[in-house]
Write a structure and sequence with these properties.
alpha/beta, five-stranded antiparallel sheet
């Protein structure tokens, strides 16, 4: 069984390693101090099980999972309290609340072994509820070629639906994200982002003018000069957020 440990705390990684020593047939193929290292290790080794911290520098554990393509089995190791962790408990193999006992660790491993007949969880399943955590609505992590780019939410000018993707427009250019418009509508700050049309979400701070287009539709003019369609429902939401 190939295992990867991803945690920014050396002591936490060491504790998981020591706990795994009692299990035969376990091969710890990589220990990583952040999500960037973890993503590379996952792509290289295709592990059977990952021990993953939630809150890490650079990118969080959840943001790293957004970039993982293959199905993965995750045991979260985290300092989040039980109230917060219950939200995604059902979508991961298990979670270990730091500090954890050997008995609690053994229970998590047994849960993983029991679930092997069911199959691994996909990153999308793990992220459905995790997206509601505070760290998920103030930035977006995207792949840009072989690089990973972190886009602060305030840098987003607007988002546009593009088949199975969403194109995120910033002053630096556009970036594709394998998500839905509904995901971003639910995740991004509703005081800053409004879905004006089924295919568009705009940053209200970028709006300079709203013009009537036809009887039941409008056009929002952004600072960049881009014109975004605004449906009747979108116009109602936009007026509320802008205080009109």
């Amino acid at each position: 069984m190939k295992v990867i440990i991803i945690d920014d705390e050396p002591l936490a990684r060491m504790i998981v390693e020591e706990c795994l020593q009692t299990y035969k047939g376990v091969d710890i193929v990589a220990t990583c101090g952040d999500g960037f290292e973890g993503l590379k290790a996952i792509q290289q080794y295709q592990p059977d099980l990952i021990f993953l911290d939630v809150q890490m520098p650079k990118i969080t554990g959840f943001e790293m999972l957004e970039l993982v393509d293959q199905p993965v089995s995750i045991i979260f190791t985290t300092a989040y309290d039980e109230y917060a962790i219950k939200a995604f408990e059902a979508n991961a193999v298990d979670y270990l609340l730091k500090p954890f006992s050997n008995e609690r660790f053994d229970k998590a491993i047994q849960k993983f072994l029991d679930q092997q007949s069911v199959g691994n969880k996909t990153p999308e399943q793990l992220l459905q509820i995790a997206s509601n955590l505070p760290t998920q609505n103030n930035r977006v992590v995207v792949k840009n070629g072989n690089k990973i780019k972190i886009i602060p939410a305030t840098d987003i000018v607007y988002l546009e639906a593009a088949d199975d993707y969403v194109k995120i427009y910033t002053k630096e250019g556009g970036f594709l994200k394998n998500k839905t418009m509904n995901y971003f509508e639910e995740t991004l700050d509703p005081a800053l982002f409004v879905r004006t049309h089924r295919s568009y979400i705009i940053n209200v701070q970028e709006v300079t003018r709203i013009d009537q287009n036809e009887k039941d539709s409008h056009i929002a003019l952004l600072r960049s000069g881009v014109k975004i369609p605004v449906s009747r429902n979108g116009y109602t939401k936009l007026k509320i957020v802008l205080g009109l």
